[in-house]
Please model this.
Amino acid sequence: MKKLPVALLASTLLLWQTTALAGRLVKRSYSDQSVHGYQTERTCWWNEVCKEEFQNLFRCKCPQFSYCRSPGRYYNAYCSMTDTGYIWTQPTWDWVP
Model:
């Protein structure tokens, strides 16, 4: 009878540890909407730099189904289909003819 509470405690701790470990493996992203314009009126190539570090304008707009992403706020951002990491939200085209 004494082995049952010990086994229950051990399995509970193992489950808790597995859940905590799985929680660390979740890919996270952060979306930044602080940049509001573009330097040029063109679409980026895939894996091209869409925003340079410390600049307040995008170089170009990423294609549809792509994200302007970087490993962090103070890095160059590239057009990628991966939606994890630091995502720079690009505004829609607002060019005046």
User: Anything to note?
Assistant: The mean pLDDT is 82. Helices lie at 3-24.
